[in-house]
Amino acid sequence: MNSVSESFKNNPLHFKHIIPLDFNTTLTLPDSHTWPLSLEPIDSLTHVQHEAVPVIDLTNPQAITLIRQACEKWGVFQVTNHAIPVKLLNEIEFQTKRLFALPLNQKLLAVRSPEGCTGYGLPRMSTFFSKFIWSEGFTVMGSPVDHACQLWPHDNANFCNVLVEYQKELDTLTEKILVLMFKSLGLTQEDVKWFKPNNESKPPQAVLQLNSYPVCPEPSRAMGLAPHTDSSLLTLIYQNNTSGLQVYRDNLGWVPVKPITAAVVVMVGDLMHIACNGLFKCALHRALVNKTHTRISIAHFYGPPRDVKISPCLKLVDPDHPILYRPVTWKEYLDAKAIHFNNALELIRDKNNSGCTHL
Question: What is the pLDDT of residues 335-354, one digit of tens each?
Fold first, then answer.
């Protein structure tokens, strides 16, 4: 059992926080999905249109420098020329749409259990809000075969093959970007000994999340995905050509992460923020919905090997930058997040600024 499975098992959900709405039969926004008007409306973005999330060509000789700047300033950027075939991106989008186009009763055949971490359902953050989000998801760890067989008993091979190939490509890309991030900070393999992607005895952990944000009758009063940061080291997101993803930037507010054909969004997660002693921002983000188009996204959450303690690298610690966080495994951090949500980071702050071991 990996870190995510362990944490989910230890922190089961109530079943009402798992089952999405039947969006195909819902013509008006129910009160259960109507968010308070105190939330910033969509038109609050007009004053930040001159600021844009960085787009980085990975073949650019200055990519390492640009990545560090983006991580320090934004905690998010988009990458192009990443070597993932466009054909595969189109196929994963098609298979995701195919899944969510199924009738609700068929999707519920693969519903996630209250203590489970894979299958169909709402994200776990639903428990922290009084209103429900206007979206549905499907989570995969490792092979998708078991759940795919529940959805399509005789026609699941293409779905499974595409997801497996996509996961491999995203693992490779994530590891490449992590190497560039570490280099941008002047870190070597010796400085981050836990990062050994090809280590069969302690492999990294990854989760694939397929998301659908259906057409909404009143998008200004609904929320596709509530504001949060990710617990992972990195999250890579492929989104279709429908806008909705936003990232929060200090002194600017919510800034759209505009879809770019064949680009992949890279978000700094909480564990990466810890590992670099706070030098890289962890991206606070959310997703809005709209009245005319369904938005599709595929998120790849990449975490450290099981039982590996992530802590600030000593090379990034000095009198001006004291140790911010105590060592924590992904499972321990997920447990904290399951209870305290976006306050989890504050709870693992190192109170004495000492005692942190080298990564």
Answer: 999 999 999 999 999 776 54
* Chain centre to alpha carbon of residue 132: 19
Residue 184's pLDDT is 98
- Rounded-to-integer distance, Cα 335 and Cα 102, Å: 33
Cβ atoms of 350 and 356 closer than 8 Å? yes
Give percent of the chain above pLDDT 90. Answer: 79
Q: Mention every residue, 6+ apart, whose C-beta is less than 8 A from residue 300.
A: 167, 170, 171, 174, 206, 207, 208, 209, 235, 236, 237
| Other Cβ atoms within 10 Å of 292 Cβ, number | 8
Distance CA 195, CA 192 (A): 6
As a whole number of angstroms, the longest Cα–Cα distance in the chain is 62
d(CA 75, CA 343) in angstroms, rounded, equals: 18
pLDDT digits (tens, 9 = 90+) for 168-183: 999 999 999 999 999 9
Calculate the CA 7 to chain-centre distance: 17
Pairing of strands 225-228, 253-256: unpaired
Query: In this model, does residue 247 exceed pLDDT 50?
Result: yes
Q: Are strands 205-213 and 295-303 parallel, antiparallel or unpaired?
A: antiparallel
pLDDT at position 5? 79
Integer Cα distance of 169 and 174 in angstroms:
9
Select from 254, 276, 287, 282 the least CA-distant residue to 344: 282
Percent of the chain with pLDDT over 70: 93
Q: Are 282 and 268 in contact (CB under 8 A)?
A: yes
List active site positions: 295
Q: What is the pLDDT of residue 354?
A: 44
Distances in Å between the Cα of 10 and the Cα atoms of 117, 271, 303, 336 are 11, 20, 19, 11
Per-residue burial over 265-274, b if 16 or more Cβ lie within 10 Å, else e, is: bbbbbbbbbb
Q: Are 323 and 353 in contact (CB under 8 A)?
A: yes
pLDDT at 355: 40
Label the pairing between strands 76-80 and 55-57: parallel
